[in-house]
Amino acid sequence: MFAALLGIGIGFSLAIQTAINSQLRKFVISPFLASMVSFLIGTVFLAIITIISGSPLGIPLSLISSQPIWIWFGGFCGVIALTTNILLFPKLGSVETSVMPIIGMIMMGMLIDNFGWFNSIEQSFGISRILGVFLLLLGVVLAVVVPEVKANRHNPAKTKQNQVNRWTWRMIGIGAGMFMSIQAAINGKLGVVLDSPFHAAFVSFFIGSVTLMILVGLKERSFTNIKEPIKQSAPWWVWLGGIIGGIYVLINVYLVGQIGTGQTVILVLFGQITGSLLVEQFGLLKSVKNRIVPIQILGLVIMLSGVFLIKMI
Question: How many CB atoms are closer than 10 A to CB 168?
Fold first, then answer.
């Protein structure tokens, strides 16, 4: 029971993290700067946790040279996924910002399992997985497509170009989810190499932080907006996104060891979808409020059924 509540809780926290980072962006303006702040806070948090666990923060040069180069790319994938979510939130809302990356995560996860990419254990496609993908896509149609079609009937002012733009952002969201699966596979391997999930999580966040600092320096040419949340008396919770991300990584590793990957994925996704529904339904954390309709809930339940078939059977 405790593990179930923990899994649902960290899934819920992911929906909250996206809403928090979206609010942080309103103060610092740049999505890259918002991501950088989140990653830096998460890196400091994980550094403290890693030291407490007794693991080192540094990496021997011999280890760096002896491992495949892709093993250090988890942080880059995290940067892409987090920054994309910050961009998606105001475009698509809380629910779709959760749903689209989930599709990408599942699809890429299945490819990684089937072909054994990143030294993963090979798990070939089966009937249950094919049925799971069908249910996943059906759930997307009910949760996303049908409500939009109904809305367009009552809102003729919506142009075809607006619909095209919305679907473009949805495809970007799916791509972000794919990078999240790649990050998970890489960090899993890195945890084995470093013999510490704490150390692996810290290294991933550290690389992501350095990457974002370089991007902000090149693109924005200034870090001064980082002071804006303080100047404008932003809510204290806008700084919590990075800590939530760090906690998610650590608890996810713990749960996989306790109840297995499949059950962990189901619980986390259930929490994430539930959290996104609540954020959008009630406009939590100063996000835009959008009423959730019954067909969306049905679609999300069908999606979860598909995920269950893909991950558990």
Answer: 11
Span 299-313, pLDDT tens digits? 888 887 887 787 666
Position of tokens 């599942």? 106
In the three-class reduction of DSSP (H, G, I as helix; E, B as strand; rest coil), residue 290 is classed as coil
Q: What angle do CA 257, 254, 50 make, to 5 degrees?
A: 130
Q: What pLDDT was estimated at residue 48?
A: 95
| Tokens describing residue 277 | 């529904």
Whether residue 129 contacts residue 310, with contact meaning beta carbons closer than 8 Å, is answered with yes
**How far is the C-alpha of 18 from the C-alpha of 253, rounded, in Å?**
21
Residue 141: per-residue pLDDT: 80
**Going by C-beta distance under 8 Å and a sequence separation of 6 or more, which residues neighbour residue 146?**
295, 299
Directed axis angle between helix 241-259 and helix 261-282, to 10°? 150
**Which of 65-74, 102-111, 256-265, 294-303 has the weakest average pLDDT?**
256-265
Provide the 8-state DSSP code for 125: -
Across 172-204, b (16+ Cβ under 10 Å) vs e yields bbbbbbbbbbbbbbbbbbbbebbebbbbbbbbb
d(CA 92, CA 85): 10
3-state secondary structure of 1: coil
Over residues 199-208, the pLDDT tens digits come to 988 999 999 9
